[in-house]
Amino acid sequence: MTDFPSFPRHFVFGAATAAYQIEGAVREGGRGDSIWDTFVRLPGRVDGGDSGDTACDHYHRHAEDIALLKELGVDSYRFSIAWPRVQPTGTGPANPAGLDFYARLVDRLLEAGVEPAVTLYHWDLPQALEDRGGWRNRDTALRFAEYASVVAEALADRVPRWITLNEPWCSAFLGYANGHHAPGAREGTPALAAAHHLLVGHGHAMGALRAAGVREAGITLNPDHVTPATPGPEDTAAALRAETQRNLVWTEPLLAGRYPESEEDTWGELITRQTFRRPGDLELISAPMDFLGINYYTPAVVRDAPHREPDPRLRTADDNRFAAVGMPGVRHTAMDWPVAPHTLHALLVSLRDRYGDALPPIHITENGSAEHDEPAPDGTVHDTDRISYLDGHLRAVAAALADGVDVRGYYVWSLLDNFEWAHGYSKRFGIVHVDYATQRRTPKDSYHWYRRLIAARR
Ligand code: GBH
After folding, report:
1. What class of enzyme is it (predicted)?
2. ipTM of the complex
3. How far is ligand 1, taken at its centre, from the CA of residue 79, in Å?
């Protein structure tokens, strides 16, 4: 593909990663355990029994990875800070070795001409806080603000863009409702409490970032583009429940200062009997943000379905009477995710239509695909499917811009093949291939394509 979609001059192009997925070195520099260090050791939870113990060894190889970013020509690099490196038990003064690692990373990025974009929380909660209830416990929101303040005081002068939480839906619902992610719990109202406390933590962290002088701060969500399988009333109502659980539970408090109107139909007594909300929470959560981060991969088509668990006392918070249906006829990635770039365009337009002026400028903080990469003997990967995935989604972003949606940037997920959570190393999202046995990095064709696209804009 030589004809690239076109973008405004100041549009930010970037690449993204997350600490636990790339760093390794989990016992170095005084790092404490996170919930993922515990989870990966539970039998059967991660494909192949994989863990992030070594991952891409980025902790020791960050100079090489920064050189890859520089050569790529990205404006910005989004990475996350491991809370348990900074506060090994989730509270108290900073562990200097932990903070220094990130301070050096930031300095080297700036030397390479790449702007750092920091995610404070990409799912690696200190295990010591989980031992006290984790996100079910409101105190974790206050600990998160304390951590945000420690990091921001050290780095705010050099880091322009800050993201409080990455995909709180995953933390609350995969972590506490269906148990696919750490800490692996399967609960009802406590998972909804976790969702609320993540929002409260975001609100407090925004305050901590402001106090440290940060001017560009926001949250990253993974909103779904949801459509009903049929236009009938049952599937339409099911789609609203899906949208409530996936999107509205976050966007309504954050952008409109209210709880979703459809929450009672979605959760029934799991939400009507809640006791975790306090006066003032909505004001805190809805404090203005400078941007909204959106991670987007694939759409959701849903139909009406009965509860999976008939006994209401045993229902988890994601048992909301809808089920996903397949999308035949479209290409699927190695994650088995249908590829439908026009749904990203539609999602962006629908967010703007719903929230109007209350919708902050948008950064696409993640987009990318896992493909069945087959490296040649020299390590090169001719990943034409990934290139066409990225091209399609960038065109969808350009179309949203043409429709007047204020999108400011796009970060490809991911710079490197890495630890794909419950899928371990079996799924490769990188535009750079990693041979885990040797830690050799080899840029794939998609890396070279993205480099040319960025260069063409200039
Ligand atoms: C994002 O999550 C993450 O921010 C990033 O860390 C991740 O690597 C990337 O996308 C690609 O997945 O099959 O039930 O075990 C997107 C949401 C959450 C989607 C986990 C895939 C698999 C859960 N992802 N989910 S399961």
Report:
1. hydrolase
2. 0.93
3. 16
